[in-house]
């Protein structure tokens, strides 16, 4: 006879930890750093705070498979009464709203806690000073796996200055540091690229890296939004209907209140097109009506585009700053495209093309991919960005391989169309592919102008060398013929050459101006 | 201010459906068929029943994106009081035991129900006749997403004959049939290969395929097992300790009772080696002790290997039957390796090598992968089997490409080491890689014998042609010299030739005997 039973979410993920990326001690360590850093960024920049982030990895001297990860930030902190659930209950969080964030699962940090407690048995340590609170709290906690509730081992509260805020998290887990340190370092570097306004200190057994912020300018934080009518399914509609306080609401009012970019007129036009009476009370809707409503909402082609106030791109200027900070190229040009959308989800594509300087020569463009300001390090081969970059004939833009060329792509969306379950590659949704190609070509055109100008400069330099080679001879001969003094003639010729070169060098002033 | 809240497991998977493979209407349809078929196989063969499975895909005539999937089996049925939870509550199931099964998540069919209700709003229909019960039940149900409980719309019970049993499930979801029908067909074909004892009828809008069983022999079902000491973590130890009825149990008794292949003596030797008193009461264990215990259990190298009674390989004979059923080759040889283990998890590798017949010529060996009798259709490029097959120099085995060569690999384990989260590729764990290579080489050697013999046969045939070409002339001349009659001489020569050919053809008797 079969025995049936239910699992708690914590039990489920304890048994299936690879689903959340904790498949082995190397990947688990990478994932832990990543979850903590991304939480710290979300706790700072989203709330208008310039991030100061400290990341430390240290090894137990008696067993170097036991790795302690500490991440500290100056974020808004976690409300003290929420700490146990936020760190100790799977599927609990603050990110279940429609706007661009890094984490969306309410799963990441809990998985790190679970992994730590199943491999080393150690509780997570959390110290948090919530913004505006007069008290800060310190916690040691585990997850009660069977019941999916936090198990607080110790907690302590202290008075603090009102304006101090931030969170420190420390975890000890079994990790394969040697196998994964290169990848974690690359993750930190790329995070520093996409957050030029953040100061990041990264300390490891091998040494320390410090990325000072290169700007104090923060991108505008995303606002919360409503669903676009094309982005919902029957279940979401049902939940919206349940959450309406009164059943006397009409269908028209329901649409206007719950959806993005739907005014009275749009709602009425749509409902008539879909065969519904706009004045129908929502309490009179049957389940079949919901099915028709959802399907009509998807196929109606006169909705306004979703607005992009829920998104927070970096902007071309910050993206260029970030690229300069990490790649130190000779030239960079960034492009932020206007908002677009797919299946009711708004998205924005940004791209930077960087050339020369410290970028290594390579046979194909080096690609750095980001989604909602998160670096994507795995599965590049199947990402839409790779496809677009490989589809471009770079000789059109005067690039000859091997070349020191890097392409940075950043897709922001309330719903990134990830390919499969790894969340490391973006699918080739036609709308996104189109925007990426437009952005890359736009930036590449600026690179072309730069490369043509560089070619001209070289040409001028070559001419200068030729001039100077014959200058003495010409001056002497001319002086002999014209009887003008050699000094006078030399001065005039020097002026001529200087003017020629000056014209070029003043064009180049400002170093990165080609990108503006 | 951030708003915090918890999600139910159903809400979580509703929002993150791609985690369970339901990322788009094509993949969701594939996944739905797969989940239902695998449940049906688990409900039959695991309980000693020869499976009769009926799969039907039909399209709504008014909207062909609305796809209805029906799967019926003659399995043991679902206990009537469990039906609502089994189909309507995420993380509920009967498969949370240590033994080889297909599904392990308690998630698959619920995801199909969720996907159906969010895309078409239609409930799942279940009719089940549990084995030994006098009643059968019929249900229409949805999942209450917010609370993760089943919402039964209608149910009905009927008397039935005691010996009738089985389950019918029907779902209507949004699916992209045209995009995915080839892949579903391939899935069904490969399922038929790995279950030669199953009869499968597959009906689609395009027609019907019928796979009659080719044998009535079932592989021995897997038994439930205990954890191997190397396969546990601290959380599992804690749960085991909690489940002991008495706290007066000693550490030694605890190990003997809870673990695979651990007798009194092994337990005592291990505990002394690890620095524990075997007579210590488990109630006196501290959390630090657990950590040491778990880590010592992993590193102790004198445990006996895990037993393989939890596994259920097909066996070489059934695997050959399956290959003949689907690939219809000229030659097939299958090999089942003895049990092995990695990190405390037992596994068995089986391999078949098939050649000629209806197999197409290809430049590299065609590969068909299976794990716990499930076909793996995606991500072949990163699977350990592909790596091993590509690493073999096939000319050693007399195979010249392009060749009509297929390699079938089957890994059985209580924990398949899947690569990443897609569960479509097996990682290159050294132990598994080694076993795969040994098995493939073993089968390939049998193929080599076959190919050498075929070469020899061709050689003989060639000689026969030569003999016959000169036979008349030789007989005539010899008769003239020896005065023996031409008839007599011809008879003797014919006998000689026949004996030569007879030797070869009697070797070949039985067609597939080269594989035995």
From TrEMBL, chains A, B:
CDD domains: TopoIIB_Trans. Keywords: ATP-binding, DNA-binding, Isomerase, Nucleotide-binding, Topoisomerase. ATP binds at residues 39, 73, 94-95, 103-110, 423. It catalyses: ATP-dependent breakage, passage and rejoining of double-stranded DNA. Residues 24-147 form the Histidine kinase/HSP90-like ATPase domain. Its EC number is 5.6.2.2. GO terms for molecular function: ATP binding; DNA binding; DNA topoisomerase type II (double strand cut, ATP-hydrolyzing) activity. It is an enzyme of class 5 (isomerase). Homodimer. Heterotetramer of two Top6A and two Top6B chains. This is Type 2 DNA topoisomerase 6 subunit B. It comes from Thermofilum pendens.
């Amino acid at each position: 006879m079969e025995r049936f039973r239910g699992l708690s979410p914590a039990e489920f993920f304890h048994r299936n930890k690879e689903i959340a990326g904790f498949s082995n001690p190397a990947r688990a360590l990478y994932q832990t750093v990543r979850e903590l850093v991304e939480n710290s960024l979300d706790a700072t920049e989203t709330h208008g705070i310039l991030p100061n982030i400290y990341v430390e990895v240290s090894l137990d001297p008696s067993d170097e498979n036991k790795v302690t990860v500490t991440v500290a930030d100056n974020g808004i902190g976690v409300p003290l009464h929420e700490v146990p659930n936020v760190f100790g209950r799977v599927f609990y969080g603050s990110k279940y709203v429609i706007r661009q964030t890094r984490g969306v699962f309410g799963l990441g940090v809990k998985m790190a806690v679970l992994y730590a407690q199943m491999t080393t048995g150690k509780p997570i340590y959390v110290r948090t000073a919530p913004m505006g609170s007069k008290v800060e709290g310190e916690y040691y906690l585990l997850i009660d796996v069977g019941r999916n509730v936090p198990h607080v081992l110790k907690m302590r509260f202290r008075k603090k200055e009102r304006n101090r805020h931030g969170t420190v998290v420390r975890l000890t887990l079994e990790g394969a540091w040697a196998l994964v340190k290169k990848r974690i370092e690359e993750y930190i570097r790329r995070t520093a690229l996409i957050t030029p306004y953040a100061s990041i200190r990264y300390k490891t057994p091998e040494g320390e890296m410090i990325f000072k912020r290169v700007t104090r300018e923060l991108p505008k934080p995303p606002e919360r939004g409503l669903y676009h009518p094309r982005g919902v399914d029957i279940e979401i509609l049902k939940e919206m209907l349940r959450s309406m306080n009164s059943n006397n609401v009409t269908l028209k009012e329901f649409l206007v209140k719950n959806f993005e970019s739907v005014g009275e007129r749009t709602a009425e036009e749509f409902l008539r097109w879909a065969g519904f009476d706009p004045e129908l009370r929502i309490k009179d809707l049957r389940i079949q009506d919901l099915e028709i409503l959802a399907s009509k909402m998807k196929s109606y082609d006169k909705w306004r585009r979703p607005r992009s106030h829920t998104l927070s791109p970096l902007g071309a200027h910050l993206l260029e700053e970030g690229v300069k900070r990490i790649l130190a190229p000779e030239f960079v040009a960034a492009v932020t495209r206007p908002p677009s959308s797919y299946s009711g989800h708004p998205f924005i594509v940004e791209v930077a093309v960087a050339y020369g300087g410290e970028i290594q020569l390579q046979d194909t463009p080096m690609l750095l991919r980001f989604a909602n300001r998160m670096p994507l390090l795995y599965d590049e081969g199947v990402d839409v960005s790779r496809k677009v970059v490989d589809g471009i004939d770079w000789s059109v833009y005067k690039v000859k391989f091997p070349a020191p060329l890097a392409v940075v792509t950043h897709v922001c969306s309330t719903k990134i169309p990830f390919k499969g379950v790894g969340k490391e590659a973006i699918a080739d949704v036609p709308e996104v592919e189109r925007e990426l190609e437009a952005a890359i070509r736009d930036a590449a055109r600026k690179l072309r102008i730069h490369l043509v100008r560089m070619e001209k400069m070289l040409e001028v330099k070559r001419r200068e060398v030729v001039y100077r080679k014959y200058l003495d001879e010409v001056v002497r001969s001319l002086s002999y013929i014209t009887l003008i003094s050699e000094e006078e003639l030399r001065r005039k010729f020097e002026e001529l050459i200087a003017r020629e070169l000056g014209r070029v060098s003043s064009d180049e002033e400002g170093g990165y101006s080609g990108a503006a």
